[in-house]
Each structure stands twice: as C-alpha cells, then as structure tokens.
Write a structure and sequence with these properties.
Length: 273
C-alpha cells in the first residue's frame, strides 16, 4: 500500500493498483460502503472493492488529512497490528502539507439519531468534532465501558490510535471454519477467551476495547467526506450502524450545513473568551 498526496478538494480515494482492466478508483464515501460484517468495505460501480479501510481512515481523520490517494495492491488494507498506530507513525514521519484552500466541514445543526435493537447512534450539535462511545459485553474483561474524546491530532495519536481490534476465541474459531479471518492472530488483535485476555502482553489501556470501538467509529464517520463539527454519540456501535448514522445525517439537508473550519475555529475561540 502507498499513500500519495492529492490536490485540494480531491478527498480520500483508494486505487486498486492490481486491477487495470476497469475502473479501479473507489472514493472513500459512505454511499460506497457495501459490506460491514468484519470491517468496512467500499466498492465502486465497476464492482472493484477495498476491505477493512476503517483503521486507515481513522488515522487520516485523526491527523486531519482530507485529501489523499491510497494505492492498494490487493483487496484489503494491511491489518498491521490491528490498530491505527502504525499508520499514524508513518504519516507523521513523512509529514503533512496544508493547502491554501480553507478546509470545509459539515456542521451538525440538529440531532440526528437512529436505533437498531439495543444499538443507537447519531450526531448532536457541538462546537468541535468529538466522539462519545459506550459498549457492553458479557465478559469479565470487558463489561461496560465508555470513552469520550475530541477529534484532534495529539489526542487521537496519544489516546486512541494504538487501541487494537478485539475478538472472542470462540467466534474466531467459527470464522476460521467458515473460511474467514484467516489472517487473524494475537499479533493483530486482542483475543478473549474464558480465562480472560489471551495475549501474553496484556492490554495497552485498561479500557482498550471501548477505545478501539471509538477508533472504528472515527474511521467510519470519516466516510462522510469531510470533518464533522458535532458529537458522534453511539451505544454498542458497529460498522453497520456507524455507516447508517452517517447516511441518515447526509440524507437530511436540514440537519447540517457546509462551513469553513476557519470560521468554526474563530467562533470557538470567541466563545471561549
């Protein structure tokens, strides 16, 4: 996989470099999401897909990257260690360039919430981009956890980016039997079994589980195509409801408007004074 600079306003675009016989460009947009079972997959009109994009999208959103071309040789983004940290490290090593054009953002004007059984998710008006997540699992090592953070580069890098994906050994064995998740291991996920945390190194945070769910949420809502000035609040979220919430917001033109990040930052500073 290679990350390339892009012109202002280009957005995030994936390019399948191994496909040359048809359109191999896929815009990172919520409307292109067509699979959410084991991660978020986007597909273009030619049927070309890239899977498991959420951790990379979270890294880009967390660092404030709006425009990039991502060349991928294969159908899936590399899993790395199951978090966004490797992507954040490499992007920061290379550095970022600012465009002269002001950043555009989606400002939430009124609440947009959806529910699906015991899950709920949606956007609330707020002065800055932020995420609030709650999870609940019937496992002694997880239980009920919550996480709230402002979407800012240093906060994301220090507190969220290194939280790894997690799963239950019994579910993993069932996926293997179905021919799925063949690359999964304790090198790229936190594994839970009946005795607790199976990974010998333990957890990176005591609440690593909810932090990773917040990471996933950031990667999924980044598919709105621009930063969202508002609070994304979700209970027991997954990729499906994250995507549904973004679509619900964008489908209701009375609930948001385009703004300049310069104006938003100036307004926040004025209120702080």
């Amino acid at each position: 996989m290679v990350l390339q600079p892009a012109s202002a306003g280009a957005g995030i675009v994936f390019v399948r470099s191994d496909i040359t016989d048809r359109n191999n460009r896929i815009a990172a947009r919520a409307t292109n999401v067509n699979e959410v079972r084991l991660g978020t997959t986007i597909t273009n009109e030619a049927g070309v897909s890239v899977a498991t994009i959420e951790h990379l999208m979270a890294a880009l959103a967390g660092l404030g990257v709006d425009d990039a071309v991502i060349e991928v040789e294969g159908s899936e983004v590399p899993v790395m260690d199951g978090s966004s940290a490797p992507f954040v490290k490499l992007i920061r090593q290379v550095g970022l360039k600012s465009h002269a054009m002001p950043r555009r953002a989606i400002q939430v004007l009124r609440p947009v919430m959806i529910e699906d059984d015991e899950r709920s998710a949606g956007f609330l008006p707020a002065l800055k981009p932020s995420i609030e997540i709650e999870i609940s699992f019937e496992h002694a090592s997880v239980g009920r956890q919550s996480c709230a953070f402002e979407i800012a580069p240093d906060i994301f890098s220090d507190d969220i980016a290194s939280a790894r994906t997690f799963g239950f050994r019994k579910d993993y064995e069932a996926l293997l039997a179905a021919g799925l998740a063949r690359g999964g291991s304790m090198d790229n996920a936190v594994v839970l079994d009946d005795d607790g945390i199976a990974n010998p190194e333990g957890l990176r945070f005591k609440d690593e589980f909810v932090r990773h769910k917040a990471l996933d949420a950031l990667g999924d809502i980044a598919l709105a195509g621009a930063p969202i000035i508002g609070c994304y609040r979700a209970a027991r979220p997954g990729h499906a409801i994250n995507n549904a919430a973004v679509r619900a917001l964008l489908d209701d033109p009375t609930s948001w408007k385009w703004v300049s990040m310069r104006d938003v930052d100036a307004g926040a500073m004025a209120m702080a004074r």
